[in-house]
Amino acid sequence: MKKVFLLAAVTAVGMPSVMAEVPAPVELDNAFLYAMSPNGKYAVSSNSFGIKIYDLANGQEYEYFDETGMSMVSCGIGSCVSDNGIVLGSTNDELAQYWKDGEWYDLPLPSSVTGVCLSNAITPDASRICGNIGLNPLTLDGDALMQVPAVWNATADGYSMPIILPYPEKDFTGRVPQYVTAVDMSADGKVIVGQVTNATGMINYPIIYKEAADGTWSYEIVDEASLIPEGVTFGTYPGDGPTRPQPEEFMSAEEEEEYNAAYQAWIDSGYQNDLFPEAVDYMTEEETAEYEAAMAAFNEEYMVWEAAYYAWFDALEQCLDRIPQFLFNSMKMGPDGKYFGGTVTVEEPSDDWWNAKAYIHTWIADVETMKYTKYNQQDDLNLTYLGNNGVGLASTSVYTSSQSWVLEHGVPQTMYYWMYSKCPEYAVYMKDNMTFAYEDFDMETGEITEVEELMSGRAVSTPNLEVMGLTVQNIWDYMTDGEAFIFNVAEASAVNGIEADNNGETVIYDLQGRKLNNAEAPGIYIINGEKKVVR
Predict the structure, then answer these.
(1) Which residue has the higher pLDDT, 360 or 195?
(2) Separation between Cα atoms, residue 234 and residue 237, nearest integer Å
(3) Which residue has the higher pLDDT, 290 or 91?
């Protein structure tokens, strides 16, 4: 059926109130939470216009927006907030910066730096920052390494000059990569995760950096052997093709001038075929022979180059079809340094490329064993935070009816069910404040029905999921901005029970927080505030 969604008010009905013993969630208007400090005292909201920094402990807010619509400041893409409120960001001037006590500071950079620099992640005690140093300006040149990984260490009056981490000079295909980055790091700053972007920019894959006891750094390409599928081989990349000889190179100045005049006359005629000038008609016999010999040599050389070029790209296309693709800058490192993860897209092989589907899911791995867990039970699942012990948070895409999930040891739970298991009152609060109503119009029958849907949004957290931040946006009302809710789960989880006054009505929800008319199908439901199993 074809359906059209009609705008309606944001409402939630028939739900009990949060009990007084539970600390009230912090509500942040016009916010889209990107990161929180490990102690839960600071948060950063980021969108295309800039960022907001929240000092939650003191109730202060700092805005850095550009009204022209060009982002004035963007926050770091890893764990970018320290426990003492230092926030990492980058300006339109392509500088790596940090914010402290209401002021922005530039991180030190060598004078040789010419490209974009980023500060991405900071340790909770602010003793170390990791990010990227720009070696070359942004370019489409296939043999230019644009960014390399680096760390800055805290000093008495700021931060030191960056230390460039070791990195591979070639990608898995044997060419110069576009980027080698440092995106996120452990709380002690000794384990860092980043990405290598191959020479074509088509494939991103993880790289892990570790600091030894003596302060030296090493790196490891994650599961490097699997980057090239069985049966695929890369020959030497042939580089740019041979240069085609130009007729003008074999003409005298007078002949070239006469030829150019004829060529212009052909253009002025409206490209009449009978007036198209042949270059050899303006050469001597000796010049023509030299030109044709040069063209014959070029054609022979070009055929050899073309065969090598297409063989190399055929191998690359097989990799694109058969290996997982990590989204650019999607890597996350757990605070304990034991796990890392990212968001992966897998293309469904199809001869009709316009009908191919990309599946998006989350992938979390053990740093030491490199054994990984795929969370692909739910398509379109993006990793938004990785906590201790490999517990992750993931959400469906922004600008959809976004839902967040808690990923633990291979088992995904909806945020609503996870929150209910920790603090039923907070689950009720989610229903009261994060449920959106819209009218569903059936174009075939003309019937209009009102639908309510809970959105658990995009999730960020502190390392042990003790403080949880959820951002939601009413996609059926484009005039509303995102709204964030911060739940102190650690303080609230000790409060048990839920007192719901349903006026005698049986109230049923599934584990995704959707209100149901009945619970006839086998499964787990929340009925009048209690978990019930229907078999």
Answers:
(1) 195
(2) 8
(3) 290
